[in-house]
Amino acid sequence: MIRFLKSLILLPIAIVVVLLAVANRQIVTISADPFSPEPVFALAVPLYAVLFAAVALGILVGGIGSWFGQGTTRRRARYHRREADRLEREAAHLRNVAAVNGQTGENLRVPNRVALPAPR
């Protein structure tokens, strides 16, 4: 079902991209020198290549910006994942100690723990 929905969305996009490329085959000159009428370094490429490169650059810059923006969320997730792993190991250790000492869940004594600092 997901594959069908992807096809349903991506097929029209692919058709539009191909039509854009076919309709914009004119050669344009790209130069980094805005003041010279005859630039020393100029690149002649089809217009659709310029458009596709601009879109790809926008996607890349947007993705990098989004990745940096979510850094705090990733850091908190790592902290909580490590804390959950530590607590699982501690619970397993306490179960092993209780099993060795013959204690059941009702009379198991758990040492008091200090509250953990909040993540930064």
TrEMBL record:
Keywords, comma-separated and alphabetical: Cell membrane, Membrane, Transmembrane, Transmembrane helix
Transmembrane spans: 41-68
Domain Lipopolysaccharide assembly protein A: 43-91
Alphabetical list of InterPro entries matching this protein: LapA_dom
Record carries keyword Cell membrane: yes
Designated name of the protein: Lipopolysaccharide assembly protein A domain-containing protein
